[in-house]
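Task: complex structure prediction.
Instruction: return structure tokens for all chains below.
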Amino acid sequence: MRKWGAWAASAVFIYIVYLILTLWTGKLGLWSPGELIAGAVIAVLGAIPLAEVVWKRGDARLLQPHRWILFIFYLIGPFFLSMARANFDVAYRVITGKIKPGIVRFQPHLKTDFARTLLANSITLTPGTLTVDVDDDTGEFYVHWIYVRNPDPRPEEVCGPFPAWARRIAE
Amino acid sequence: MSALFYLLLAIGTAFNGLGAFALMRFPDVYTRIHGATKCTTFGSIFSILAVVAYGFYKGGGEGGTLALHALLALFFLLITNPTGSHALARAAHRAGVKPVGAVVDRLEEKK
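Output:
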């Protein structure tokens, strides 16, 4: 039952993306019939590998709509702000050459795959920090930091509010 | 209105140029990933936002399609870019490339 749910959710996601890409192709309606049929076939087939790989640990929680709104708010609010700030920091380091690199380890206490992926992607997108590895069993993050302020940091020191947001959105 | 497009494009170009500059300036693969993938992502976000703004300004079916497609490209850029740079860094570390001038390397201690 759960497997079918994962497959259906993946198929709907693929179909929506396809429909956005082919918007205004029809003469009367928004889509031509050919595009609707082709999109349905692609969604049904593409959802099979997606359901196998992505939803392995069954995060059905992510289907709750208030988490999507939180996610979009997170993207244009706190995430974009710290990304812009970090960009100016790295721009300064590019020009002056003041770097003190190192790989640090910290434990953000995230359990689900989606929360870990969200945090790892946020860390990597923010200039100055780069996720090198995540321990699958313990959930420890190994992050390359361009200017190490503390060799044994707390999660907040490396990536600010990201762990709290990852927990709020995906757990 | 076109001043806004040019402003967004100028910010995007400036950060992309900075990313290229970082590629020459930093010492090893990890720090270069910082410059070459992050600065260019930030630059590309602004370049894409310029296209989106232009699409909405133009309006109609054509402009709306342009804006939507650009937004979709931005969404997938935000997902795939960190995944790619993470894969590069992890492969480099597995292949035994040490970070130059590192003050601490916890991943090496783990092995």
